[in-house]
Sequence to fold (498 residues):
Amino acid sequence: MAQLLDLNSIRSVLVRLEDTIIFSLIERAQFSCNARTYQPCAFSNELPGWQGSWLDWILLGTEEFQAKARRYQSPDEYPFSNPSDLPDPVLPPLEYEPVLHEPAVTNVNDKIMQFYTQEIVPSITKPGDDLNYGSTATRDVETLQAVSRRVHYGMFVSESKYRADVDTFNTAIKANDVKTLESLITKPQVEAALLKRLERKARHYGQDESQGGSMHDMKVDPEVVVRMYKDHVIPLTKVVEVEYLLKRI
Amino acid sequence: MAQLLDLNSIRSVLVRLEDTIIFSLIERAQFSCNARTYQPCAFSNELPGWQGSWLDWILLGTEEFQAKARRYQSPDEYPFSNPSDLPDPVLPPLEYEPVLHEPAVTNVNDKIMQFYTQEIVPSITKPGDDLNYGSTATRDVETLQAVSRRVHYGMFVSESKYRADVDTFNTAIKANDVKTLESLITKPQVEAALLKRLERKARHYGQDESQGGSMHDMKVDPEVVVRMYKDHVIPLTKVVEVEYLLKRI
Fold:
């Protein structure tokens, strides 16, 4: 528990997730936009009775299986599918010491799904349809899960900051003072450093090393990665952090 | 079809898979060795009646689901599980023009599983057990599938080389002359360039860019990646290439 709430340890998880997210985006960018993947009922011939999109179907199948492997027992993992549709784990629960204050669940995966499919996918892929629906959705699931973990990790950040200054936070929470809570958890210097680091990483990992590191054929546009964090990941993390705090006492 | 058998196009798939394989190894290296994951029957309490390892169980669940999404209809995808244990796709088959000569199936996934679990995992991970069995096996599946695709792509390489010089190959095939076939498909200069490129990529992607690119904390040892290709991936690809050719006429 001590380790989970240590800010340095939290930071190293978040920094490591940046790599995972960039790697996943690079993998996704190999395939075309494949918009059909994201349209509800577009596969109703192949999946009779299924009202969601092809991606929703792949997500449910993946999460059903991962739920059996205990994924959603972990306090930093939230499913995209309806939790009541998921089976129980086959592994006995790990003994997690309760770290977060209950009820901790603030699931913003629907918002992640929205910006990812509507804005990020069209920005990193070639337009059109290459029929690789299986590969496409597999890469989407990996990216969505990594982004989801990144955003929901905000609850650990909140808890850690809360414990470091209980009185100040309690005052703001009791007054339902969202503005103050936001300013208490916002560190502009940390955010600026994050965006700089992210740009450097995306540029680094996205280079085509096959040619000895040419800058021409970037596998994913570093600007899109930075914008995704700036416009979505960081603001959504703050939503999670504030909502968590408001329910904290 | 023309594109699938164009050597430049094949080469770009193989070069791209190098990135995927290195990324997957980096992701796997975050977790401990977790040897229990690979031991048959080690999870017999949690999975009553299951004789395989935890990884085998995760592989079967993943492949069952991916089979529904048409993965194993693709001529370059081979399952690790017994194909007769896998369900039919829910998507109609893509109209692949037959590219490979039938019977093309030379599945060496058991050999890939062996070197990966016995040699690669212990070389890239911390020793011991961190209980992250779900995450571990998920990363293993990604790596194994990428390596499998890389190795089995050898059949396309063979077919392409065969078509470029039918008479020479036919003579060697008819004489069951494995030595000559091996020398016909071996390009020492290409292999040397591949290993050099691989080392550069592993060094590049494995740098800890969080610190601005320090060379100290490599996320995966470039030597292990190079050795994996030199001792296993390249020789196994040749096995696949030669076996494919021997069945070609």
Summary: Residues 62 and 141 of chain B are 8 Å apart (CA to CA). The radius of gyration of chain B is 19 Å.
